[in-house]
Write a structure and sequence with these properties.
Blueprint (H helix, E strand, L loop, with lengths): L10 E2 L9 E2 L7 E2 L2 E2 H5 L1 E4 H6 L20 H19 L3 E5 H4 L6 H22 L2 E6 L18 H20 L4 E4 L5 E2 L7 H22 L4 E4 L9 E2 L4 H10 L6 E6 H6 L4 H10 L3 E5 L18 H13 L8 E3 L10 H27 L2 H9 L6 H7 L5 H11 L9 H13 L1
Parallel strand pairs: 1-2, 5-6, 5-14, 6-7, 8-10, 10-12, 12-13, 13-14
Antiparallel strand pairs: 3-4, 9-11
Helix pairs in contact: 3-5, 6-7, 10-11, 11-12
The structure holds D-xylulose and cobalt (II) ion.
Length: 436
């Protein structure tokens, strides 16, 4: 049985192809800097946007035309598994990511819900065996249900804290069972609306306690996948605790969790925090916590998380530049946390969205590799900071001098003539690499 009869396997046809259902750049086996494109990019399908997303928004109902729409909840869940694996096979995507709530329907009790999960996990496991497709990461949705209205691990209710622990415990077990290479914590409602009713100190301590419990439980069950935190500054709560990578680093260090977590950086979350995508990747890299990426893009004219398929070549070049500089993905990958627009309701649009994103990142990879091979920015940056490699600069870096010695030096030498930062020249060179 096929869910996507109208679309056959997506092939690489090259730059001159006019076929919308073909890759123009992404050629999975092409070698770039010693690795195939697919090894570099490790594309993943987001279960939620791709299979459970229905096109609702605060003003309107579902729009997506899907063959499973009218099935009963459990049959729908099973159909979505089969459809998802057919979709990934057709696109040549080798990984997927999911929330517990994406794969199985809610039930009256936690116990019943967990039974539903087990039934669907059996189907997923079968499809994974059949196709060789792997789980990049799992996570648990602790933000949609009304019980999480005040948060999950940061809820004012200890019952909700306990419920969240039960849900995460089960989601970790499923992720382990499916061989997941990672586990993501995105604090959906871990934040607050007003300090008039919030004990922020206790909430943050509880979040620290919760994550430590997750680390302990992973050890107990032998889950060796990588833990990630996915920073986001706002939405749904006004003040999300995991604002950006720098904030998360401070949090992890306070609760002594810095060695256990890496970052899952999402492009549109970076921009909502007032940063570029490249900035967040860079902060993760220089702090040794670069992990995985949720690839998407926002709309600069809108202040919310639009989760669009990434098509901005400039951003994808600079993102892949950071990924390559970080040594590439190990456990992580490029998960398209992106959804088709509400008006793009046909099944074909799902394929077109992924093709757009995969081609954009493939092109980004190619250009970033060239920039690195030619050491375009490296040579310039090296020269720009060369005063720290000899003389007084070397003494500063090596910790050999303090204010007294530096004051003596400044009194004697003053400041040598500075050099231009040449930003316009560098931006022009970057454009040249993109054009060619
Ligand atoms: C929300 C978001 C989530 C996480 C996983 O903005 O990005 O889908 O990626 O919970
Ligand atoms: Co995300």
């Amino acid at each position: 049985m096929s869910y996507f009869n109208e679309v056959s396997k997506i092939k690489f046809e090259g730059a001159t192809s006019k076929n919308p259902l073909a890759f123009k750049v992404y050629n999975s086996e092409e070698i770039i800097m010693g690795k195939t494109m697919k090894e570099h990019l490790r594309f993943a399908m987001s279960y939620w946007h791709t299979l459970t997303g229905e096109g609702t928004d605060p003003f309107g109902n579902a729009t997506m035309e899907r063959s499973w729409n009218d099935l009963s909840p459990m049959d729908k869940a099973k159909a979505r598994v089969e459809a998802g694996f057919e979709f990934m096979e057709k696109l040549g995507i080798e990984y997927f990511c999911f929330h517990d709530k994406d794969i199985a329907p809610e039930a009256e009790t936690l116990e019943e819900y967990q039974k539903n999960l087990d039934i669907i996990v059996d189907v997923i496991e079968k499809e994974m065996k059949r196709t060789g497709i792997k789980l990049l990461w799992g996570t648990s949705n602790m933000f949609s249900h009304p019980r999480f209205m005040h948060g999950a691990a940061t809820s004012c209710s200890a019952d909700v804290f306990a419920y969240s622990a039960a849900q995460t415990k089960k989601a970790m077990e499923i992720t382990k069972r499916l061989g997941g290479e990672g586990y993501v914590f995105w604090g959906g409602r871990e934040g607050y609306e007003t300090l008039l009713n919030t004990d922020m100190g206790l909430e943050l301590d509880n979040l620290g306690r919760f994550l430590q419990m997750a680390v302990d439980y992973a050890k107990e069950i032998g889950f060796t996948g990588q833990f990630y935190i996915e920073p986001k500054p706002k939405e749904p709560t006004k003040h999300q605790y995991d604002f950006d990578t720098t904030t998360v680093l401070g949090f992890l260090r306070k609760y002594n969790l810095q060695d256990k977590f890496k970052m899952n950086i999402e492009a549109n979350h970076a921009t909502l925090a007032g940063h570029t995508f490249q900035h967040e990747l860079n902060v993760a890299r220089i702090n040794g916590v670069f992990g995985s990426v949720d690839a998407n893009q926002g709309d600069m004219l809108l202040g919310w998380d639009t989760d669009q398929f990434p098509t901005n070549i400039y951003d994808s070049v600079l993102a892949m530049y950071e990924v390559l500089k970080a040594g590439g993905f190990t456990t992580g990958g490029l998960n398209f946390d992106a959804k088709v627009r509400r008006g793009s309701f046909e099944v074909e649009d799902l394929f077109l969205g992924y093709i757009a994103g995969m081609d954009t990142f493939a092109k980004g990879l190619k250009i970033a590799a060239k920039l690195l091979e030619d050491k375009v920015f490296e040579n310039f940056v090296e020269e720009r900071y060369s005063s720290y490699t000899t003389g007084i600069g070397k003494d500063i870096v090596e910790g050999k001098v303090g204010f007294k010695e530096l004051s003596d030096y400044a009194l004697k030498n003053g400041v040598q003539k500075l050099k231009s930062g040449k930003q316009e020249m560098l931006e022009t060179i970057l454009n040249q690499y993109i054009y060619n």
